[in-house]
Design brief:
This protein is α+β, with helices and mostly antiparallel strands. Strands 1, 2, 3, 4, 5, 6, 7, 8 and 9 form a nine-stranded antiparallel sheet that branches. The chain starts with 5 loop residues before the first helix and ends in an 11-residue tail after the last helix. About 18% of the residues have low confidence.
Length: 249
C-alpha cells in the first residue's frame, strides 16, 4: 500500500470507528498519540489505538510484550462477567513526500483477551496484518497468532505426580491437585510446548508463488474491511457460548 496523507489516515479512523459502533452497539473512537503526530520526522513510527467512549466499559490490559493497551468488550452486557475483550493497534511510519508528510501503514492488529472488568485479563490471540518490509518477514499476511500455551499448565513448577513404589507415576484423581514429585525433568518440555511461533494465514490461497500467503493491502479500504470482518467473526462465535459452559469436541 502506498503512503497516504494525514487526512486519509484520519478518514480511515473515522470510518472504522463508525463501522465498529454499528457492530458493537456502543461508541468507540481512535486515541491519537500526544503531540502533533503528523509532524513526525521521516522514519519515525506513530501508533494509534481504539478506545470506547463509554466510561463504564473503559478498561486496560497488559499485552504479552508487557505494554498497556486500551480494551473494550465484544458484548457490552457481559462486561461484568468473564468474556472476550479486544484491543486495536496500528503502527504507521512517517515518509517524506516533497514538502508534505505521508504515512505508510506498517502493521495493524486485533488483540483478544479473556477476563472480567477490573479483575485482570489474559491475552489469547491476535489477528495481524503486517507489511513485510516492516514486520512481516516470511510470515503469512494477514494471519492469526496464538498467545496461549498449547497445553494447559497442569504440571507447573513442581506440581507433578509423585513417583510410586515401582517407579511409575501415580496420577491424581479428577479435580485433585497433583502432588509434588520426581518427574519434573521429564515434563519440563511439555511446559514449553506452545503455538506462539505459528502464523496461521487468513488469505492468499488463490495466489501463486512461494509467498502466496503474503497479501498486501491495496489501500486503507482493504484494511478497514479486514478489520471489521475479523472482529465481527470472533464476536459472532463468542455469542454461541457463555462462561462456564462445557464445550463438547
Amino acid at each position: 500500500m502506498d503512503p497516504v496523507s494525514t487526512n486519509t489516515v484520519r478518514g480511515f479512523h473515522r470510518d472504522l470507528a463508525k463501522d465498529l459502533r454499528g457492530i458493537l452497539g456502543y461508541g468507540v473512537d481512535t486515541r491519537e498519540p500526544p503531540g502533533p503526530w503528523y509532524k513526525r520526522e521521516p522514519g519515525q513510527a506513530v501508533e494509534f489505538q481504539l478506545h470506547t467512549t463509554v466510561g463504564a466499559l473503559r478498561e486496560s490490559a497488559k499485552t504479552k510484550r508487557g505494554r498497556q493497551c486500551q480494551v473494550f468488550p465484544l458484548h457490552a452486557d457481559r462486561a461484568n462477567e468473564r468474556t472476550l475483550w479486544v484491543a486495536w493497534q496500528e503502527v504507521w511510519v512517517s515518509c517524506a513526500h516533497g514538502q508534505a508528510r505521508k504515512f505508510r501503514l506498517a502493521a495493524a492488529s486485533w488483540l483478544f483477551f479473556w477476563g472480567q472488568y477490573a479483575r485482570g485479563m489474559e491475552q489469547l490471540l491476535r489477528a495481524e496484518w503486517a507489511q513485510p518490509p516492516d514486520f512481516g518477514g516470511h510470515a503469512a499476511q494477514p494471519h492469526w497468532h496464538f498467545d496461549r500455551s498449547l497445553l494447559p499448565r497442569v504440571y507447573d513448577h513442581g506440581d507433578l505426580p509423585e513417583a510410586g513404589a515401582n517407579g511409575a507415576s501415580e496420577s491424581p484423581a479428577v479435580g485433585e491437585a497433583p502432588a509434588t514429585g520426581a518427574l519434573a525433568p521429564m515434563l519440563q518440555g511439555l511446559q514449553e510446548l506452545t503455538l506462539e511461533g505459528l502464523h496461521l494465514g487468513m488469505g492468499g490461497w488463490n495466489h501463486d508463488g512461494p509467498r502466496c500467503w503474503q497479501c498486501v493491502p491495496a489501500n486503507t479500504a482493504d484494511v478497514r474491511l479486514w478489520a471489521v470482518r475479523a472482529m465481527s467473526d470472533v464476536r459472532s462465535q463468542e455469542s454461541s457460548f457463555r462462561p462456564g459452559q462445557v464445550l463438547s469436541p
